[in-house]
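seq:
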Amino acid sequence: MHITHRLFAATLIAMSGASVMVAMTTPGHIDPELLLPAACGAFIAGAISAPLFGHPARQGAVMAAIGAIFATALGAAAAGLGLALVAADPVFFLIAPVMVGASILAMPHVLLVWVGTMAGAHLVMLFLRSIPDWVD
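struct:
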């Protein structure tokens, strides 16, 4: 995978993580202390899981779904680790993936944001993978 494609996928996943974090918060009360770690953790997870996004056909959709779940869990853990280091409380590292997963499963609007942004990331990466290398 070309490095620019990997960075682009990481950015899309970071935007997804930030969007999910905003959807998880109380309307009108976005907490920047949680938003930045969520975006940074999702960027790291997106860079790692980027090769799973953008493949064609049913196999590509399955790979993207696996990539979305993996990126979400890893991004939440990375964000929790960042919060745990800043707050000197290791419980954030353990609870962040549980909180994100529970929010996605329990709140329909968070699920909609998560599915929409991850599917969008897959479709954008599908388009980018379809461009010949000589266009770079």
